[in-house]
Amino acid sequence: MKFEITIHPLHKVLGCAGDAALDAASALREGASAVERRAAESLSQFRLEREIRDLQEEIGLQMRAVGEMMYASHRGHPADSGQVQEVLEYVDGLYEELEAHRRELETLRGLLVCSSCGEGNSAGSLYCQNCGKPLSRG
């Protein structure tokens, strides 16, 4: 009588299980990285939105101050024109900063911002929907 000893390929099963575990770990790392990137993008968007609100509020306060200076002039108490000019130049800077934040926020949201006019366009657009210039993807 002849006996055949079959060695169960346990090492193959263990090897496949090990490969599957490594694949699962890799997928988990990729998923965690995607979640981390999305959280960072959301945080950036939140910060930009907050900065935009703060800039809008500051612009409103400064424009109110200009209005009060103009009204004081109307009432016979003219403000120093240099002071008015200084406030208006400050407001110009605030508007520039506000526009830059808005463009950055649109970019984070996946919009293509026209380099010519600053308008936000959908990701599939080849030309600006506002001015018609070609959109850059780089």
Q: In brief, what are we looking at here?
A:
This protein has helices at 10-74, 81-108, and strands spanning 112-113, 120-121.
Structure description:
With 138 residues, the chain is mainly alpha-helical. It has a domain at 47-121. Helix content is 67%, strand content 3%. The chain is built from 2 helices and 2 strands. Strands 1-2 form a two-stranded antiparallel sheet. Helix 1 (10-74) runs antiparallel to helix 2 (81-108).
| Beta strand count | 2
Helix content: 55-70%
| Overall mean pLDDT | 85
Biggest sheet overview: 2 strands, antiparallel
Q: N- to C-terminal separation? A: 77 Å
Low-confidence stretches: none
Q: For the largest beta sheet, what order do the strands appear in spatially?
A: 1-2
Number of helices: 2
- What is the element string, with H for helices and E for strands? HHEE
Q: Structural class, please?
A: mainly alpha
Q: Which overall shape is indicated by the principal axes computed on the Cα atoms?
A: elongated
- What percentage of the residues does DSSP assign to strands (E)? under 5%
